[in-house]
Design goal:
With 313 residues, the protein is an all-alpha fold. The chain is built from 12 helices and no strands.
């Protein structure tokens, strides 16, 4: 009943949505891994049947062997699923984290670049080069860091790094101000200070400055990543890429595959419980193995529906 509701809701939401992320570049769905997992579960169901037949014939050592194989295949299934999940996490495909519009993509770049600046500045606040009491105030840290970069003595390479981090802060701050003012970075290169005020003053009555576009922010980030000075620092920032209905897709994907994984763990628990009997496992456990096998077949059957719905269609 759970999975019928999940699958039915997914079909209704997908058909009723005006757009859906179907490109593998957007979803990072791995069809080959999903197909491999399908094969793994089907084979594991076969071994459950063999184990039950062995129980019925009182071949308990043989039954334990095939139950162990089933358990190993279940572990393999979860390992492959974990590998798939890692691919999603590496690309920040997580409910609530996906930018669905150009505006959200721009804001995400802003937040991530701010986080990079904070991490860079933390090196100096934690190392005592600047006043740690002002660690959260980036503008104050930047001033102190600028003074430190121009000072004499100490680690020269650290001072040079501080100078580049100051410039990185100024680049982020300029981007942030453009986002706040929603002003084009091309027409108004500097949204901080007199340049912005002069551009506004030059406007005719009723006119407004060109707005900031997604392409400008994308170009800004790519230029930053191409700069050897900052490439390593900003490499972790995800390229801005709006994915319409991306969060709905991610919510459905993780809910359905995650809930299925919980059922896999429950089935594994049933197999572990009977295997723990060791040589004491006898005909009294035949019904247990049969019912556990039926449960496992349902787990397999559900995945046979999930695989084409989530991975192929």
């Amino acid at each position: 009943m759970f999975f019928t509701a999940f699958i039915g809701s997914y079909i209704v939401l997908r058909i009723g949505s005006k757009g859906w992320p179907t490109s593998y570049d957007d979803t990072h769905i791995n069809v080959w891994l999903g197909g491999l997992n399908t094969f793994v579960l089907i084979v594991s169901s076969y071994f459950v049947v063999i184990a039950h037949e062995a129980m019925a014939k009182k071949q308990f050592a043989k039954a334990r062997k095939f139950l162990l194989i089933t358990l190993a295949l279940a572990c393999l299934f979860l390992c492959i699923k974990g590998l798939e999940y890692k691919g999603k996490f590496d690309h920040d495909i997580w409910p609530g984290n996906i930018a669905e519009t150009p505006g959200q993509a721009i804001s995400k770049v802003d937040r991530q670049l701010e986080e990079v600046v904070r991490n860079q500045f933390a090196v100096y606040t934690n190392g005592g080069q600047v006043d740690v009491t002002q660690a959260k105030d980036l503008s104050t840290v930047n001033v102190q860091l600028s003074i430190f970069s121009k000072s004499d003595g100490g680690d020269e390479s650290l001072r040079e790094q501080a100078a580049s981090d100051v410039i990185l802060y100024e680049k982020w701050q300029n981007l942030h101000q453009h986002i706040v003012a929603n002003v084009s970075m091309i027409d108004v290169p500097n949204a901080i200070g007199p340049d912005y005020l002069a551009a506004r003053a030059a406007l005719a009555e009723g006119d407004s400055l060109p707005i900031l576009t997604f392409g400008e922010v994308d170009d800004f980030l790519q230029d930053l990543k191409a700069d050897k000075t900052y490439a390593s620092s900003v490499a972790g920032i995800f390229d801005p890429h709006p994915v319409l209905y991306g969060n709905l897709f991610a919510s459905i994907y993780f809910l359905m595959t995650g809930f299925h994984a919980i059922h896999v763990l429950a089935g594994m628990t049933l197999f572990v419980w009977v295997l723990m009997q060791g040589s004491k496992m006898d005909e009294k456990w035949t019904d247990w193995v049969e019912n556990s096998g039926l449960y496992w077949h349902f787990v397999d059957l559900v995945w046979i529906f999930l695989f084409p719905l989530l991975y192929i269609i």
